[in-house]
Each structure stands twice: as C-alpha cells, then as structure tokens.
Amino acid sequence: MQEHKNTQAGILFLLGAIGFITVVDSAAKYMTADLPPLLLVWGYFLGIFICLLGLAASKGGSLPRLLTTRRPLLHLGRTGLLVLSISLLFVALKYMSLADATAISFTSPLFITLLAIPILGERVDRARWLAVFMGLIGVLVVVRPGSGLASWISMLPLLGAAAFAGFQICTRMLASTENTFATLFYTGAGGLAWSSLLLPLVWVTPEPVYWLAFLVQGALGVGAHLCMIKAFTLAEASLLAPFNYSKIVWAIAVGYLVFDDQPSLNTLAGAAIIALAGLFLMLHERRNSRRAGT
Fold it and tell me: Can you tell me the distance from the alpha carbon of 63 to that of 58, in angstroms, rounded to the nearest whole number?
C-alpha cells in the first residue's frame, strides 16, 4: 500500500513539473520575437542558478555536505542533455506553434521506455507499452502526418525529445545515490556552463524586463526540477513516461489564453487519447498494488 502511495505521489510531482515547464516554454516562445533562442536558454539557466544561490545561502554550513557527489561526470552529461533538449525546442518554437512543437516532443516517453530497459534494467510490462503507444497515437492525431509539419524544423523537437529522454534516465540513475539539492544545484550550474559556450555568438543586450523574465523562468525551472527529481525518486521512469503526454493539456490551455490559439478538433481528440493513456496506466498500477497487498 505504501508503494502505491509513493507511485501516486510520483505521478503528481511529474504533472506539476510539466506544468511549470509549459509556462517556461510559453514565455520563451513569446520572447523569441526579440531575442535569439540560444540567448533565452542561457537566460533561463542564469535565472535557475541565481535562485539556487539563494537556496544555497539558506543551507548555511551544511552546503559542502549537501553538494558532495560520487558521480560528477553523470551530472555533467545529464545537464548537457538538458541544455541540448531545451536549445532545440526553443529554436523550434521560433518557427512553430507551441502545440505543434509540444506534440512532436511527445516522442520522449517512447524513448524513455526504450532506454529504461537496457540502462535501468526496469521491467516494462504490456500495460506500460500499451499506454506509451496509446499516447503516441494521440500525438499522431495532433500532428496529422502529411499536414506540413514534416520539415527540417520538425526534426528539432524530435531530437530534443531524444535528448530529454536521456536526461530523465540520468535523473532516475542519480536519484538512488544523490540528494535532491545536489542534483538540483548541479543542474543549474552545469546548465549555465554548457549554455554559456555559444553565448558570444548570439549575444544581444536584453531589455530590463527580460532580465526579470529570466529570473521568473528560473524560479519556475527550480520548481519543475524539484518536482521531477522527487517524481523519479518515488516511481519508475517507465511508469512515469506516459504522463509526460499531459503537457498537451497544458499547451492547449496556455496557447489559448496567451497566444489566442484555437485548438483544432485533431488537437482535442489527440489530447483526449493521451489523457486516457495516462488514466489507463494509473488504474493498472493501482490494481497491481492492491493485488500485491492481498
């Protein structure tokens, strides 16, 4: 029964993380009209790092102990994958709608499930596979193959989805040995370091309001990563994978409220399939937990 409660909590934490990330993506799309996407990636991680410095200051003398890590290279690779994923998405958002880019990025759960088998040694049963493919069908309904999205631009969120899957797998690997604050701190510090490499090539001086936006994005990013780390501590990566599809619900809501995007019938139908996939998996896990408790 305790395992069932942990699983439910892990799902809720992941849903919260995805909500925060959607707001960050929406703000990035809005700002791409004035600033280069790669500069926005740097600004996002700058905001995260500033917020983390504030959290670190509150830790006082315990900070060195909290930042101790046995897996520095995994932290470095993990943040590199995250920067790559966000960079590809932000560039795509300059040319694509939020809903289209989000839909294509939903191939990430499939990559996660595939990688969880050889890397994490997780057992992926038929119900989990079915939930993932149900979600993928929902994505195809949204994207509508042949509708014009199959261009080189559409490859950017697809590659970003693969990188994000690797990032989530690394998060699961670190969750077993690292404390939450260390993982979060190295996410911000490593992300800022990686994103600074190309900064001289794209630099333009942002207006003051954008510096404030970077800070707000950073605070949302910290919240998202805290929720994500907690989610992967409580539940298996392959179980959580289908719930990444819930981002389409957030994207539809934000697109309507912020960009006045009217969701098409395909978008609504695909979102419904995606939601049913997550609900199916949650009910399946609940039934398994009850059987195990009897």
Answer: 9
